[in-house]
TrEMBL record, chains A, B:
PANTHER family per record: BLL6422 PROTEIN, FUMARYLACETOACETATE HYDROLASE
One of the Pfam families matching this protein, by short name: FAA_hydro_N_2
Keyword Aminoacyl-tRNA synthetase attributed: no
Native source species: Azospirillum griseum
Fumarylacetoacetase-like C-terminal domain mapped to chain residues: 81-332
Superkingdom of origin organism: Bacteria
Lineage of the species this protein comes from: Bacteria, Pseudomonadati, Pseudomonadota, Alphaproteobacteria, Rhodospirillales
Recorded GO MF terms: hydrolase activity
The entry's keywords: Hydrolase
Protein name (database record): FAA hydrolase family protein
Limits of the Fumarylacetoacetase N-terminal domain: 1-77
Record keyword Hydrolase present: yes
SUPFAM superfamilies: FAH
Coiled coil: none
Length: 338, 338
């Protein structure tokens, strides 16, 4: 099943069921007006939404055209967004570039931060920044949405609490990060609103590409129209999604609609830092990682962070080449203040 | 105006207007079913709620008895909870005890972390912990609730976006903090669900005790029935609430219903670390601070963290001795797993 939230209809938008090929959508006000409402009562409402989905796929005349530009993030605002760093390769690389050793525990104890969830950018909304000097970067990721997860859940039991998957652009302000992390309390100003793919999908939509813990497909990022990266999300993911959910729930329950991210998707190559697309590699899922590799290779980064007008597109395709989630497609714009 | 959310009525509870003396409450389903709904449309709905409040105060027969034990946190779940450390004295002390210098920038750049907001404990709910070895502690704080705050707001303009105030118990798992902060991404497992006072109040309810930025009243904490601390929230608050709101909104807007905390209220005494209540001082707002003072004074902490069965009560009184927000009153209990 595929679900989206149209911007129209208020702060939480309007829940629609989207056809598998993303061509059409159907509002479902008699079942649930918003995706959060559906998640709040998922066991009861999901089968009703699945019935609409079956009809929509079977009848090409059903529903109305689906325009991703009219879509908000599937959860336009959420009660929780936590983001792991499951591709530990990425963490090791970024630290290496600044000469910091990575503690061995990072391979067994997930890194995860509590992100802001009070308002996500829509998948085709601009990314506002007051200054290019902030070092605006994208991070292409995958995220899951849970129902109610009890405190202390095991990773095995967490698997059953994963109800939806989405793509993420975890917007990061690189030049604000060192000082902010140096204060010791994690990200706040350096991680502004993230955006998510137009469509959230139930795990079965991924077929064999979802093994219950990991998505085995390349995550494709384009920068200003050129391929930037297509690492396989199923490779080098040290902590799978159930492990990340269990980590988040160790000392407290997670409420329905909690969003748990993978961190930047990143693949090693022969144990090394991978290769840019321009050198025949699978590339990267953020500028910081390419800059890190440039630093390791040549002593200094040469690729700049995003500038006003730059455009990032993040998408994931099935084996037949069809877009599973629709595309995150955003342009960085200057913000002149309130 | 005073507002609360009764637990009955679903995940967001039922919004009620509460009489000034906390004796009675009135549901307002034709105005707003939940506090979040009221905050989503505050400019329109607040005057209607104020009218109910006036009637409730004028007519002793209006409304039904208000029982804080039936109250959820005013926002049972919220889209955002960020917590500052505005009483920099507290930060300096805690660092001193572990031999860490505090950077001078901490006096000019607020420390703030993104907390979990997907489910707050009710004001009289137990605090579940799987182990006393987690080092369970309370932190008595004050928080404000905003309407929609634009990105890049000035501290001056942020003042007008503060719509409600509440008390907070920012539950902290002290023994999980060093390792988690050591990973560099801030709190996650070490800051489980917080709880808030039964009642949220508009700033005017504080009269002269609210100067537009700071609450000038003692915040009173009892531990197992004995006075533990009563530092004045208006003393030694280095960053006032508008400054904290502006800090949170530097790189992104804050959605209506965002909760911004003060951090643990803490007073110096003659430039020093204050004194415990048992020695005639105003005491502290968390065990960690008392333990820090014990460490500085005697070389080691002697007060243990909370044990199963321990009870914490946090309250704030007006000059006439009336409780403004009702009491947070919670007992730590053993959690045996899902």
């Amino acid at each position: 099943m595929k679900l989206a939230s149209l911007k129209a209809g208020g702060r939480d938008g309007t829940l629609v069921v989207v056809a598998r090929d993303l061509s059409r959508a159907q509002a479902v006000p008699t079942i649930a007006r918003t995706l959060q409402a559906a998640l709040d009562d998922w066991a009861t409402l999901a089968p009703q939404l699945e019935a609409v989905y079956a009809t929509l796929n079977a009848d090409p005349a059903a529903g109305a055209p689906f325009d991703p530009a009219q879509a908000a993030s599937p959860l336009p605002r959420a009660y929780q967004w936590v983001d792991g760093s499951a591709y530990v390769n990425h963490v090791e690389l970024v630290r290496k570039a600044r000469g910091a050793e990575m503690p061995p525990s990072f391979w067994t104890d997930p890194l995860m931060y509590q992100g802001c969830s009070d308002g996500f950018l829509a998948p085709t909304d601009p990314i506002p920044a007051a200054s290019e000097a902030w070092g605006v970067d994208f991070e292409a990721e995958i995220a899951v949405v849970t129902d109610d997860v009890p405190m202390g859940v095991s990773a095995d039991a967490a698997r059953g609490h994963i109800k939806l998957l989405m793509l993420v652009n975890d917007v990061s302000l690189r030049n604000l990060i060192p000082a902010e992390l140096g204060k010791g309390f994690g990200f706040l100003q350096s991680k502004p609103a993230s955006s998510f793919s137009p469509v959230a999908v139930t795990p079965d939509e991924l077929g064999a590409a979802w093994d219950g813990g990991v998505v085995h497909r390349p995550l494709v990022t384009h920068l200003n129209g050129a391929l930037f990266g297509q690492p396989d999300a199923g490779v080098d993911m040290t902590f799978d999604f159930p492990t990340l959910v269990a980590h988040a729930a160790k000392t407290r329950p997670l409420a329905a609609g909690s969003v748990v991210g993978s961190g930047t998707v990143s693949n090693k190559l022969d144990g090394g830092p991978g290769k840019p697309v321009t050198e025949g590699g699978v590339g990267y899922s953020c500028l910081a990682e390419l800059r890190t590799v440039e630093t390791i290779t040549t002593g200094a980064p040469k690729t700049p962070f995003l500038r006003f007008g730059d455009r990032v597109r993040i998408e994931l395709f099935d084996e037949a080449g069809a877009s599973v989630f629709g595309a995150i497609d955003q342009q960085v714009v200057r913000y002149d203040g309130p």
